[in-house]
């Protein structure tokens, strides 16, 4: 069985965004909430997951994560609002 991979965006308490990827979104979200998810979210405190995309393989997810991380806040907000396509 091949795992599905997910790229997600979390909004933090200071209104910043964190972008990551995982094959277990529920588990990863719990890790972020507990302060164990990443150095960034441990300092900025995760508030809510605002976006999630599914991919068939890790390479696609990794490319997408890197792409989104390079975007401006405004572009990320358009994606979250559904006004920006996958590619």
Protein architecture, described:
The chain has a single domain (5-80), classed as GIY-YIG endonuclease (3-Layer(aba) Sandwich), CATH 3.40.1440. The protein is globular and about 35 Å long. The model has no long low-confidence stretch (mean pLDDT 93). Strands 2-1-3 form a 3-stranded antiparallel β-sheet, with helices on both faces. It has 87 residues and is of the alpha+beta class. It has 4 helices and 3 strands. The termini are far apart. It is 40% helix and 28% strand. The longest helix has 12 residues, at 58-69. It comes from Candidatus Sungbacteria bacterium RIFCSPLOWO2_12_FULL_41_11. Residues 3-78 form the GIY-YIG domain.
CATH-defined architecture: 3-Layer(aba) Sandwich
User: What's the rounded overall pLDDT mean?
Assistant: 93
What's the number of helices?
4
Q: What order do the helices and strands follow?
A: EEHHEHH
Choose one word for the global shape: globular
Secondary structure tally: strands: 3
Radius of gyration from CA coordinates: 12 Å
CATH superfamily: GIY-YIG endonuclease
- The helicity comes to 40-55%
Into which percentage range does the β-strand content fall?
25-35%
Number of domains: 1
Question: Could you give the order of strands across the largest sheet?
Answer: 2-1-3
Report low-confidence residues grouped into runs of 5 or more: none
CATH topology: GIY-YIG endonuclease
How far apart, in Å, are the first and last alpha carbons? Answer: 27 Å
Family: Belongs to the UPF0213 family.
Domain GIY-YIG: 3-78
Pfam families: GIY-YIG (PF01541)
Protein name: GIY-YIG domain-containing protein
């Amino acid at each position: 069985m091949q795992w599905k991979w997910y790229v997600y965006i979390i909004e933090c308490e200071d209104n910043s965004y964190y972008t990551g990827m995982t094959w277990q979104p529920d588990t990863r979200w719990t890790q972020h909430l507990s302060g164990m998810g990443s150095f960034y979210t441990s300092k900025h405190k995760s508030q809510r997951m605002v976006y999630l995309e599914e991919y068939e393989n890790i390479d696609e997810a990794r490319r997408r994560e890197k792409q989104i991380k390079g975007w401006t806040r405004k572009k990320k907000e358009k994606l979250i609002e559904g006004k920006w396509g996958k590619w």
